[in-house]
Amino acid sequence: MPILVEIYTATWCTNCVTTQGIMNDAIGDSNVEIIHYHRHWFEPRDPFGSNSTEERWTNTYGHAVTLNGGAPRLAPTKVVDGERMHYGSRANSDSLMDDYTASLSKGPNGLLNGNISLNLHQTEDFISFDWDISSLAIATQEKYALEPWILLIEEEAYFPDGSNGLETYEHVLLEALSLDSSEYSSGALEVPLPSLWDGDDLKVAILVDWIVDSSPSESPLPPPSIVYLLTSLVAMAYVRGPRLS
To answer: What is 3-106's CATH superfamily?
Structure first.
């Protein structure tokens, strides 16, 4: 089961490039899925991201980032399996490599039973989804609710005007679409195809947050979620770190 690394970044952020290089070295050959959230609100220098990606980041991680850095949208911030946050470029141990390696080695704490299904159909201008999480259950003693999302991710985008010099930006989250599961645990959705920066490398994911009323953990980070990714209709499922209601 892959490890999930969510990263808040910007095309002008030089520390983001430095810390991402260290994270890549820490990952090595490990089975990891990376999602980059780019600054979008009030941001003239970064062309990526959207209102929906900013809303998802601030609603999910904004509180924890604010406690560490004083504001909800600070680059670079990395969250491993939804449970372990690394803000900025200062190490908590002897080095960032040690910090990242320790986080990656722990793995997610969430346990799930059942299946998630996501089918898609693409036309010239639209993409439609059929999803079903009715058999999904989380191993917890707490009461919880499931909140599914569709994530649209561009695997590579070439932008030579970024002032951090990276030029090719990977795993760019284009849209984060919340699905209504208050009454139904399955459904269908049709949305316009997002404007890709270049190429035809769109990845689709269904992410299911689970929200609990209480938690013994004192961490401000959310509890685990489940992500189901489709790339060329090949799916992977994994669990990550529950959001308190």
So the answer is: Glutaredoxin (3.40.30.10)
